[in-house]
Design a protein that fits this description.
10 helices; mainly alpha
Length: 222
């Protein structure tokens, strides 16, 4: 029995290394969101890689990229948490645990740190464009908006289908004065500032929910 944890850690290590090697392009030493969403879990440790809190905890240095070391640390933590949760409850309990970790961290790191991480996470997988006649404005592709829509389940949670959400991001950019919807070059693009505004609104809403409605008290990470 004493050897069980080391056996599990060995399985976790080998699985993470194999998955990282499978998904990471040559010449890179990190995974981005589009690759993270393809990670296959160990059978006994099912993890939802489309859950924002999970991605937040996984990306320990909050740079929108996940290294093999970060993946190994996260998987090792999941293996340790397995003993705290019943097996059939593990996926849901892990999402709850990661959401609480995100809540605790944001109370220390601040909302703007979360906004920066959010925009890095969702723009890292997609080429960012700039135009000389829109100085200081970075544009993300339609795919970035689609990914946000899928990961945050915006259709279910906010009642916006993917096209309405994309249109909303574009209208937000126009209202901010950073783009023109009439410009055909921008037909498939959204300004990164729109993602920042959405991220800020999202985390403010989450903090209000956790603090005022659910009455959670943050426990800052040690």
């Amino acid at each position: 029995m004493g050897g069980a944890p080391s056996v599990l850690n060995d399985v976790v290590s080998r699985h993470c290394t194999a998955e990282f090697k499978r998904l990471c392009p040559k010449g890179r030493d990190f995974l981005v969101l589009s690759e993270l969403r393809q990670l296959q879990s160990i059978e006994d440790l099912p993890i939802d890689m489309n859950h924002l809190g999970t991605l937040f905890v996984l990306d320990a240095d909050r740079n929108g990229r996940v290294t093999l070391q970060e993946l190994m640390q996260f998987a090792t933590m999941c293996a340790k948490k397995r003993k705290d949760f019943r097996q059939h409850e593990f996926p849901l309990q892990m999402k709850g645990f990661c959401t609480l970790c995100m809540f605790d961290a944001v109370t220390v790191e601040g909302e703007e740190a979360f906004v920066l991480w959010f925009t890095l996470l969702f723009s890292e997988s997609h080429h960012v464009k700039t135009f000389a006649d829109y100085p200081g404005v970075a544009f993300c592709s339609r795919d970035a908006a689609h990914t946000v829509h899928e990961v945050l389940q915006i259709d279910d949670n906010y009642g916006y289908d993917v096209q309405r959400f994309f249109d909303l991001c574009q209208r937000t950019g126009e209202e901010l004065g950073v783009m023109s919807i009439e410009d055909e070059r921008l037909d498939e693009l959204i300004p990164r500032e729109a993602l920042e505004m959405f991220a800020r609104s999202f985390i403010q809403g989450l903090l209000r929910l956790m603090t005022h409605q659910l009455h959670f008290t943050p426990h800052p990470p040690q």
